[in-house]
Specification:
The chain is mainly beta and 151 residues long. A 5-stranded mixed sheet has the order 3-2-1-9-10, with helices on one face. The chain has a 5-stranded mixed sheet with strand order 4-5-6-8-7, with no helix packed on it. The model has no long low-confidence stretch (mean pLDDT 96). Helices cover 13% and strands 35% of the residues.
Length: 151
């Protein structure tokens, strides 16, 4: 199962990001969406799970949870915007992966048996950081993360 991972769009959804997410069976937005239209456009590609980021303050964003738990293709995934807000042990809780955003820095790391995945920022460029999204391929009891630089 192919899962698209995007974060920190800040109201900007680049055509390159949409192209890179095509074929996803599910899309996770790890916060700082910036505008409800972003989620509407992503939903045209696949079902979307999104969490609220620190810039998501308007009335539309109140419907977004601060954290979310998903089970996709047999893998349990925990989603939050800012990894510094993580208040549990993912491995002990049975999570295969933790998806976050906020830093705008793409990162793949495994700690205590859990994948920590930040797709970076798909929105406006910050400093000299890449514009990127991510993908997870889930199947046969494994998760294969991939970072994709789009600009």
């Amino acid at each position: 199962m192919l899962i698209g991972i995007i974060s920190d769009t800040h109201g900007l959804l680049r055509p390159e990001a949409l192209d890179a997410l095509r074929g996803s069976k599910h899309i996770i937005h790890a916060g700082d969406v910036g505008a409800p239209e972003i989620l509407d456009r992503l939903r045209q590609l696949a079902p979307v799970t999104a969490v609220r980021g620190n810039i998501d303050h308007d009335a539309w964003a109140e419907q977004l949870p601060e954290t979310e738990v998903l089970e996709l293709a047999g893998a349990t995934i925990y989603v939050l915007h800012d990894l510094k807000q993580l208040d549990l042990d993912p491995h002990a809780a049975g999570f295969a992966a933790v998806i976050s955003g906020h830093t705008h820095q793409p990162k793949i790391e495994t700690r205590s048996g859990a994948l920590y995945f930040n797709p970076g920022s798909a929105g406006p460029r910050r400093f000299r950081l890449p514009i990127s999204i991510g993908r997870l391929r889930i199947g046969n009891g494994s998760i294969a993360p991939e970072l994709i630089t789009i600009a």
